[in-house]
Amino acid sequence: MDKTNTKTRFIFITGGVVSSLGKGLAASSLAALLQERGFKVRLRKLDPYLNIDPGTMNPNQHGEVFVTEDGAETDLDLGHYERFSGVDAKKSDNVTAGRIYSTLLSKERRGDYLGRTVQVIPHITDLIKDFILKDTENEDFVLCEIGGTVGDIEGLPFFEAIRQIGYKMGRSRVLYMHLTLVPYLAAAKELKTKPTQHSVKELRSIGIQPDILLCRAEREIPLEERNKIALFCNLPEDAVFQALDVKSIYQVPLRYHEQNLDERVLEHFDLKAPAPDLAKWKNIVHRFEQPEEGEITVAIVGKYTGMGDAYKSLNEALDHAGIAHNVRVNQRWIDAKGFEKLDVAKKFKDADAILVPGGFGERGVLGKIAAINYARENKIPYLGICFGMQVAVIEYARNVLGIKDATSSEFGAYEGGDERGSLVGIMTEWDKQGVVEKRSKDDDLGGTMRLGAYECNIITGSLAEKIYGSKHITERHRHRYEVNIGYHKEFEKAGMKISGLSPSGKLPEIIELPDHPWFVGVQFHPELKSRPFAPHPLFYSFIKAAITQAQKVKKAA
Ligand code: GLN
Q1: In sequence order, which residues have a C-beta less than 8 Å from that of residue 92 and are 6 or more positions away?
Q2: How many whole angstroms separate alpha carbon 540 and alpha carbon 543?
Q3: Which residues are catalytic?
Q4: CA neighbor of 292 nearest in space, from 322, 254, 250, 252
Q5: How confident is the model at residue 460 (pLDDT cuts 50, 70, 90)?
Q6: Residues 223-271 pLDDT 10s
Q7: Which of 33, 45, 27 is nearest to 177 (CA)?
Q8: Using CA atoms, how far apart are residues 179 and 214, in angstroms rounded to an integer?
Q9: For residue 234, is it left (φ>0), alpha (ψ between -120 and 50) or beta?
Q10: Which pLDDT score, from 0 to 100, does residue 178 have?
Q11: Does the first or last residue of the chain, that is N or C, have fewer Cβ atoms within 10 Å of its Cβ?
């Protein structure tokens, strides 16, 4: 079991009472604090649901699918981890019960278990432990979050696995941190600690005594109440922390640090380290909450507008660029569905820029085309991401090149009979660092996608080159369809430039309109690589164009 260096410490983050309390942010914030104190950190997430990965899950229900450099479709918490710690997440940093079971069942069929009865304990729990411990030798801390809440049936093997790790390694290398809710009952005018007590009781009944409690609350929990929680939950008084609602997520590391959370964690491990320098965090909180250069509005035309987390990385990437320019970026979401019937100009009256993000399926595409057409003709800055680039190409083909039936093969078989219709089509071969990757059209859903980091060459003299300050970039992908390079010449002649191409020269990666102030479409997802302290150059430039547009409108008024 002890494959890890004796130096690596493990911090397990669990949750109780209800979900969505901010475990991912708590883990990310603690990681950021430890990092600022000079430690090397790695963050992992264990998801007890049975999907093999979140790739097939509806973003409306589960939130965004975060894609790593190495091409894994993972939980959106990995996005928080990357953004707060600056450490690129890997395939090996997120696992689901589905994947664990699938591994176990293949091993069983191969006969790896040599005739033994295969059981949740020890076989599933052993696989979970292997996952947690793998490749952690060079880390000072591994922060490992368990999805769901304590008491969920499907979570039990995960809790048992982390209990065993603590049992074997001892408390000098393992810390359990539990996040619960302390609700406020308005009618009684009281904060209630009972749900927290029950949650900890549940955790202790499966053999885990938390070392640190984070109590999420809408309002200040008086010391007296915190001490009561400590007493009933069997913790020292200084191990109970408040996780109060904050105006912005960038405050979270600061609020925990003010309460000495990082110091308490180091004490647990008997470690000493210099105090963290949090000036850069304070700076972004200030810029984000009180920007000094006014505000701009970006209209985002998408489909999954019901769920706040469906475009998490995009929301954050826009915020990062806003922070960098010291402006507030208002994100106005417009549902693409049914939208083409409305007065487009009215819809975009106060939009300083328009963005069409990634998406799947035909629903809402006419609305997106109308929005892009409006941005193109009215010279409003436009950023098209993935689907947003494909639809921009279709819009251009239909309205400028006169290919009236231009479409994507994603929208079902094209029935017009004219081959030219299929401008965006399925690809089953990709060139990855000189090696051709092949997939079948009939692979399982997810299997046919181009996923993860791919290289792209940028054409000299393009806006893209100016934006990136480089002619060679790597960006993350998640899509099945590609723009057909066959139309290259027609597009260039009419004025749409393909300014970024795959190394093979076959896949258009970036398009732009030189006669427009700022019109860029990218086949990849730049939002996945934006960080609060290093905004993505495309978003940085896009927001700058929006600021210029806002100034132009103001002058004209
Ligand atoms: N649906 C498109 C494709 O699969 C675009 C995907 C996306 O925007 N992520 O190619």
Answers
A1: 131, 134, 135
A2: 5
A3: 386, 525, 527
A4: 322
A5: very high
A6: 999 999 999 999 999 999 999 999 999 999 999 999 999 999 999 999 9
A7: 27
A8: 5
A9: left
A10: 98
A11: C
Domains along the chain with CATH numbers: 9-283 (3.40.50.300), 292-425+488-498+506-556 (3.40.50.880)
Between vectors from CA 485 to CA 483 and to CA 491, what angle results, nearest 5°? 90
Alpha carbon of 455 to ligand 1 centroid (Å): 18
**Sign (positive/negative) of CA torsion 407, 412, 416, 417?**
positive
| 317 Cα: distance to centroid of ligand 1 (angstroms) | 19
* Residue 360 CA to ligand 1 centre (angstroms): 5
Burial tier of 12 (Cβ tally within 10 Å: 0-12, 13-18, 19+): buried
Q: Please give the Cα distance from 525 to 317 (Å, whole number).
A: 11
| Protein residue whose Cα sits closest to atom 1 of ligand 1 | 360
* pLDDT at residue 3 greater than cutoff 60: no
Look up tokens 């405050």; give the residue.
251
Residue nearest to atom 7 of ligand 1 (CA): 358
At 190-223, the pLDDT tens digits run: 999 999 999 999 999 999 999 999 999 999 999 9
**Residue 211's pLDDT is what?**
98
Question: Of 23, 42, 46, which is closest to residue 34 (Cα–Cα)?
Answer: 42
Ligand 1 atom with least separation from CA of 359: 8
Residue 357 alpha carbon, nearest atom of ligand 1: 8
Q: Please give the Cα distance from 325 to 544 (Å, whole number).
A: 7
Hey, what are 466's tokens? 């100016």
- ∠68-387-527 over CA atoms, to 5°? 40
pTM: 0.92
Query: What local confidence, expressed as pLDDT, does residue 306 receive?
Result: 67
